[in-house]
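pinging the channel bc i need a second pair of eyes. not urgent but kinda urgent?? the chain im working w is below, pasted from the shared doc
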Amino acid sequence: MLGNYDREPIRRLNLVDDRLNRRQDDYAFRMVDIRREWDNSVYNFCLVADIVTYLVGVAEKEPSDFLVEQGLFVGTTEFFAKSHVLKRVYEDEEHPFGWMQDGVFELFDREGRLYRWEIEEEFVDVTEELP
């Protein structure tokens, strides 16, 4: 799982981690859980992304989170096919994310792998929709 590792957002990542790990035969982890020095995070992300079944990103506006990895999600057919994004919706803002991120979200939306949420109750619900 990828997302923002600041105090409040990581609580939501932990929630996804918990929900997915309750499933039989599943093991979810956050990229930050890999206990190694990340000299080249893009290279290491690609190594991990090659071996996992699914990639899950939690997209929130502030502060920006996994922007590089979002690009990598759609950069290869293999990564895109196994990626899912939980996108936070901000009621008071028309475009809280940049135009590049909006383009990535549109691709996931077309494939039915963009899960929108605004409040934490909805976040729990969309987490349950993940494969």
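so The chain has one domain: 7-129. and The chain has six helices and three strands. — does that match what u expected or am i reading it wrong
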